[in-house]
Specification:
Uracil-DNA Glycosylase, subunit E; five-stranded mixed sheet; 9 helices; 9 strands; 28% helix
Length: 239
């Protein structure tokens, strides 16, 4: 990891020891949607998770949940990787490409797209729910932070969980994704992957989309996702 201060990014991505080695020689960044906070009694909750301000950075070293454990909010990707069912389900997609006694998260970088903590909300029964990452939670800052991370880590493949962020990254992004690459995405790969060309990154980056591992659709579409992931991992990056 570089010590360079990032202009837009809040969350430092998880970058494990074998990231540079990659899988089939390809460096992979996994891109989740957002982090949620369920500590509604915290005195900072309303401001830290404000969906209009979209900025948790002021509370980086103030959050009681983190400071008591000598942690910072900005390192959240390091604390969460591989510890929930979603990460375990997702691992099935790539486990066939590593040795049976290895941990897939030793190879995969990880971060979330949204650069602030999203609030959990109570349902009609009073239970806290994580819900979905809404398009209204997204901002231009998130996209610019994503570009910063790509320029720093220079992955060969970005695997996006879910579809919430895709329109901004893929369809609304003619500067980095050409119409031809987008057409190929839909016509040749059933929408699973396309190519991005990012300034300061010498090679094309392939953006792979799959359903979020927490979604019921993850299971119904798993075979298709596995098929196109295998194809992408065996693809010459210059193609």
């Amino acid at each position: 990891m570089t010590n360079e201060v990032k202009k837009y990014r809040f969350f430092n991505p998880w970058v494990p020891p074998k990231y540079r080695k990659g899988i089939n020689g390809k460096k992979i960044l996994v891109l989740g949607a957002s982090y949620y906070c369920n500590k509604i009694t915290c005195p900072y909750f309303q401001d830290c998770t404000n969906v209009d301000k979209k900025d948790s950075s002021f509370f980086d070293a103030l959050c009681p949940q983190y400071t008591t454990a000598n942690k910072f909010l900005h390192d959240e990707p390091t604390y969460t990787t591989g510890e929930t069912p979603a990460y375990t389900r997702f691992a099935r997609l790539l486990i066939p490409f590593i040795e049976s006694d290895e941990n897939i998260w030793d190879y995969l970088a990880f971060t979330n797209y949204v650069q602030f903590f999203v609030p959990c909300k109570k349902d009609v029964d009073g239970n806290l729910r994580y819900g979905k990452t809404l398009p209204s939670y997204l901002s231009e800052r998130d996209f610019l932070a994503f570009i910063e991370t790509l320029q720093e880590l220079k992955p060969d493949i970005v695997i996006s969980w879910g579809t919430t962020t895709l329109s901004r990254i893929r369809e609304d992004n003619k500067k980095y994704v050409s119409k031809q690459d987008l057409d190929d995405c839909y016509n040749k790969t059933e929408g699973y992957y396309c190519r991005m060309n990012i300034p300061k990154v010498e090679h094309p980056i392939f953006l792979f989309n799959c359903y979020h591992p927490s979604s019921p659709d993850w299971y119904s579409c798993f075979d298709d996702a596995a098929k196109y992931m295998k194809e992408l991992l065996n693809l010459n990056s210059a193609t």
